Amino acid sequence: MTPIDDQPELSDLVVDYDPHTLERRDVALATVLDRLGPSRSARTVARRLADADGWLDRDGVDEVLVRSHLELQRLHEEFRVGALLCDLLTPMLALVRERTGRPRVRIVDLGCGLGYIVRWLAFGRRLGSDVELIGADCNRVLITAAQRLADDEQLGCRFACANAFALGEPADIIMSTGVLHHFRGDALASVFADHERSPVAGFVHVDIRPTPLAPIGSWIFHRARMRQRLAQLDGVRSAVRAHGIDVLCAAAASGAPSFTRATVDAHPGLAGLLRIFQGLIGVRGVDGVRLQAAYEDLEIVPGRYRFTGTGFERARHGRRRVRLA
Amino acid sequence: MSVAAQVVVEVAMLAIFDALLSGFRAAAGRDGRILKTSFYGVALARGAAAGVLVVAANAMIVRGLVASAPAPSLTWQAVVEAGARSVSVFRFVALFAGFTIGAWFSPARELRILPTLLALGPLTLVRPLVIGGGLLYAVWPAVEWRVWAVALAAGASMLGIEWLLGVRYRNRWRVLV
Q1: B31 touching chain A per CB within 8 A
Q2: What value of ipTM does the predicted structure carry?
Q3: Which residues in chain A (104-143) have CB-CB distances under 8 A to chain B?
Q4: B176, A149: Cβ pair inside 8 Å?
Q5: Which of A81, A90, B138, B162 could connect to B85 by a Cys-Cys bridge, CB 3.0–4.6 Å?
Q6: A91-100, A155-164, A315-324: lowest mean pLDDT where?
Q7: Is A252 helix (H, G, I), strand (E, B) or coil?
Q8: Does residue A100 carry a pLDDT above 80?
Q9: Is B91 on the interface with A (CB under 8 A)?
């Protein structure tokens, strides 16, 4: 039997795209059930999405995914994920500007879904006016929804149904939230290899920090806050599937060796009770000392950051623990 | 103010407070915009208005049941006693919820997350149990079936209010696709 942490999330199975054209392909219920594992609840959700001929109904799937992402946005609002990304991107912007020599920086959100983080950052230009914000996702329905939401609030960002690494205008910084755990093994290393092959100057990836409490916490919040059964099930599964920082570091080291890398809040001590996310950041052409200095100097929330260098220097309460990886 | 009037006011206020929060929950996770101040303002107002209606409807039910009792004053007394017992439970839950909601506005970002993690999320999950358990505790000593009927009506209306308020938002996602 497949170990639970290797069982895919339902949302990964109910849609399928041509890897080159990103055209959507029909998904057979039997294929989903084969890969889903023994979870009776997940299998029930999958069956409900299928038509009489054994194919998943595209409209039904789209409805569930859009509603689930709206509910996920609510969780991100509650846990202030936008502010976390803003904190981590601000020093990265300075590093990338230094490296490229250009004031204008293009940030692309990999697997942006409804684009909450991109839109949150665009709202009030939280990263300044010389930042171009783009959300990229394979799901055309989610991208359409994200663009409509951005247009509705006249936000300075845009969305593309595309591979984040294959945009006409390449990214300077790639970011993601809750995406890395969707990739496992070679696929995870391949994501970082895409960074290496592209002209990307830096990356900021944030994902759930795997702890013994993460699955139960995830269960509580996905039960309390989400209405879609798919979202409830995937929420718990994503906490179980979240990569340990060692796995992320190893994948980044093998896939993107030219980047100087650091982890954020991977080992936050007691503060970990409040910090449910960990980050992996990387920048090209900058040494560890400079990376350290960037995160020390650019404290947008004064007193919140401290680099602990290469060791496990004890951080004072309230500061994020960033260390070179 | 008489004890009975005090209990009635407290029960009504607690019900309206709970309905107010139900209004928020019914709307939450259904609008993808970044700025949702007015959206949530309307949702809270709808919740509060629904709470007033629920209180009024339950007051009519109480009135009808008490009036139909063989000994209305004794039945009314039993209803008031049950109300007082329910207030003794729900008052603390409401105070706890109010305190944690207040902490959400703390200037320290991580302190804002703390009440969500420890209280607001889990409280939402156990709310049906708290309502059911609190009402059961309130009516347990009562022998008059009408008191149980009042509790049943109150519990059903409080548990159903979020679902009803959510009907308005259920298809809101369609404008996005």
Answers
A1: yes
A2: 0.90
A3: 114, 116, 119-120, 123, 141
A4: yes
A5: B138
A6: A315-324
A7: helix
A8: yes
A9: no
